[in-house]
Amino acid sequence: MSRALKVPRHQALQAAMLLFWSQGYHATSVDQLQAAMGLQRGSFYYLFKDKRRLFLEVVAAYKNSVVERRRTLVQGASSPSNGVRLFFQDILEHSLSTLVYPGCLNTNSAIELGLFDQEISSQLESGIQTWEAFWVETLTRCQALGEIEAKSDIHAKAGLLIALTQGLNVLFKVHRDRAFLQSVIDSGLDFLPASSRVTVTQK
Amino acid sequence: MSRALKVPRHQALQAAMLLFWSQGYHATSVDQLQAAMGLQRGSFYYLFKDKRRLFLEVVAAYKNSVVERRRTLVQGASSPSNGVRLFFQDILEHSLSTLVYPGCLNTNSAIELGLFDQEISSQLESGIQTWEAFWVETLTRCQALGEIEAKSDIHAKAGLLIALTQGLNVLFKVHRDRAFLQSVIDSGLDFLPASSRVTVTQK
DNA sequence: ACTTTATTTGACTATTCAGTACAATTCATC
DNA sequence: GATGAATTGTACTGAATAGTCAAATAAAGT
Questions:
Q1: Which of A2, A12, A159, A174 is deepest in the core (most CB within 10 A)?
Q2: How far apart are CA A57 and CA A192, in angstroms?
Q3: CB-nearest partner of B174 from A125, A170, A175
Q4: Which residues from 21-40 of A have any strand C atom under 7 Å from their CB?
């Protein structure tokens, strides 16, 4: 029964994600969203209830695409500390390659929408906490392998990685200079063993 | 000749600053601004041309109040490295004491308004660059006094301080736990001599 | 072919928004 | 206390906004 969707939901969500990412929540109108998603007014509201709900879905979609991709990148690295370095390398490449989708949709939105909406905020905050937990886990693996000192405060370092991630988003606005940004990253990661130590590969 | 202003300009600007700071640019309407500033429609536009121009003035006012205060704090410290620590201590106190004006108006706005307005963006970016230059200068003084290693990459560390500042803004959203935040700051500043080394005071 | 149900369409509403117009008011100066 | 420019109050405009609705359409099952 019934008729197929003209535009697949995931595709429409992806378009909305890019728009919110590049412009923020308030600066993005339903008209713009519609157009980018290839939907008419009615379909938009039929499919996504309203702008606010759409945004919540977009945040979830962001988690399942961008965030998951980076998580996989870290986990697939030859060692946890190389995973951390790869993560920041990926951020660097991403940011140098686009002016349009700067930083992280999650944290950008957390800053823009701080007190604006309870549900949205808590969604965004949970995204940040997820990262933090992931860093704690990754750094614990580093520690177990002796890649960082046993006495290191893992939670503090995890917080520092979050801070570095977000801090880079701001630096990118001012410097599009790879060498400089690389030096900031290296400096921030100097508690890790010197880069790309080749670890024992599996037979 | 003529009549005095009902509300002094600096006072109106201060009110506008707090509103923009807590809500961001787009989420703040002229109606709200008017009300907070104690002005009627006509006076608002008479005194501040329009919302956009007001915002530019607010950014300038922010520089002359909040930013200058912190700069003075750093410069008045017993040593440059203690100045850096004092700066982050001040940020920590500020953030723990208010939920309403989170982070830095300057960088928050840079993120919200990235591609929205050329003039505003370049104003905000110059604010970031000013800080960076200030950190370079401060760290150079540290180096001259032997507080940090001679071979340290000052520019990278300056970038790191900017990143740490901004990164904390995001962490504050999730953790209002002094001990944790303090540990992140300490961890980020561990290239400085251990805190509050009492330096030779002037006679 | 007909019915059912999901989707699409585009016109419509009501509200909020930034910004304007201009008359009324105030007050330092003459 | 009259003058006139600087300030204020308020009603207005037009554009953009988010969101609604009901009729039109397409597919799938009977």
A1: A159
A2: 36
A3: A125
A4: 39-40
